Amino acid sequence: MLEKSDLKLLMNSFPFWKQLTPEQKNHIEEKAFSKTYLKNTTLYNGDIECLGVILVKSGCLRVYMLSPDGREITLYRLYESDICVLSASCILQNITFDIYIDANTDCKTLQINSTDFGKIAHENAHVELFAYKTATDRFSKVMWAMEQILFMSFDQRLALFLIEEADHSNNYIIKATHEQIAKLIGSAREVVTRMLKYFSEEGFVRLSRGQIEIIDYQKLKNLTK
Amino acid sequence: MLEKSDLKLLMNSFPFWKQLTPEQKNHIEEKAFSKTYLKNTTLYNGDIECLGVILVKSGCLRVYMLSPDGREITLYRLYESDICVLSASCILQNITFDIYIDANTDCKTLQINSTDFGKIAHENAHVELFAYKTATDRFSKVMWAMEQILFMSFDQRLALFLIEEADHSNNYIIKATHEQIAKLIGSAREVVTRMLKYFSEEGFVRLSRGQIEIIDYQKLKNLTK
């Protein structure tokens, strides 16, 4: 059975909640379950059977593509109260690509498996529409990521990454190795190391083991314009 | 007023046709209009006001992204009886990116402007769902294109392009300049020229002004595997 706070989260996060029948509400309340993922766990990949709809209770999930030779391209991240439907792609007719989802931090989620969600989506057009609208929203996020990858010069991309990390965590110290940053922004470690060295020489950042400290936020931000 | 063949095309192409009210059918029949675009015309870009839903009657449209410095990345193409909804992105809540659409050949289209289509989508959930489902389908196409661009080596991409062109036109002669091919596959002319020279030396293709002839289809195809 769901905790009261989980039920409240469901009601607030699913815009179709008021358009469910009492039976459908009961069905979701009975079938939804909580889960905890440790940092760096892979929640979802092409091999794991269609997982279902994931609602993030806390932490951060990273959604990415994986190349045949193991290169990762981050598409977007999901934070508290974000919902992932691509992990239930078996109930979306037109999704034919594979994505991967990792826990970027320790995460708590609320999940509804594909069969249960699919049943309700099949019965209730509002639920089905929600799933496709959410997928379309992710489409926009992916296009944004692709524009960064394809069109921005690398100094801009790296600067933008550092600025966004700092803004998001409200902290000028970013704890990540060059290898991790390279994965997150779809580049190679050597390229990241070289550019960070340049940023450091320019006085934008201070580098130490496993972390980057932003010491001139404004100059770094100017790079991204 | 629409021609009979156009009406038939509407009925066959829009899966929601049977779920429209007689008034909604009349509205679409009255408001839909035919249009002709000459090869290389730009139908749609960030500056042109939200155009509406486009149904391809004949020819080929190319949908692409444009970088700030003018580089084009082809996302997908639309052929006879394909429908474009991203050109009506103003009626889709979650589409926040700009795409561009060119006529790749002389094209005939049937169009419904955004206001008229939006009105029906607002009234009829089947129509709204169709729009989002179609957008989700294009999401898959875009992901496919991105995988090619990000993950395939360039010889594979160019070989795949030539094979697809030949298969699609049922013709081993591909009429295109290196510049045009570079645009279509999101590369630079010099890179295309160099790789085509290699293909030609390997005996896969024969090059002449403004065209590429495939002379060893199988070997070229093997490259794409």
The low-confidence parts of chain A are none
Count of helical regions of chain A: 8
**CATH fold-level topology of the largest domain in chain A:** Jelly Rolls
Strand arrangement across the biggest beta sheet of chain A = 1-8-3-6
CATH architecture tag of the largest domain in chain A: Sandwich
* Chain-averaged pLDDT of chain A: 90
Overview of this structure, please?
Chains A, B: One of its GO terms (biological process) is regulation of DNA-templated transcription. Chains A, B: Residues 152-218 form the HTH crp-type domain. Chains A, B: GO terms for molecular function: DNA binding. Two copies of one chain form a homodimer. The first copy, chain A, has helices at residues 4-13, 22-31, 114-123, 125-151, 154-169, 178-185, 189-201, 217-223, and strands at residues 33-37, 42-44, 53-58, 61-66, 72-78, 83-84, 100-103, 107-112, 173-175, 205-208, 211-214. Chain A is of the alpha+beta class. Chain A has two domains: 4-145, Jelly Rolls (Sandwich); 152-223, Winged helix-like DNA-binding domain superfamily/Winged helix DNA-binding domain (Arc Repressor Mutant, subunit A), CATH 1.10.10. In chain A, the strands form three sheets. Chain A has a four-stranded antiparallel sheet with strand order 1-8-3-6. A four-stranded antiparallel sheet of chain A has the order 2-7-4-5. In chain A, helix 5 crosses helix 8 (217-223) and helix 6 packs across helix 7 (189-201). The radius of gyration of chain A is 20 Å and the shape is elongated. The N and C termini of chain A lie far apart (49 Å).
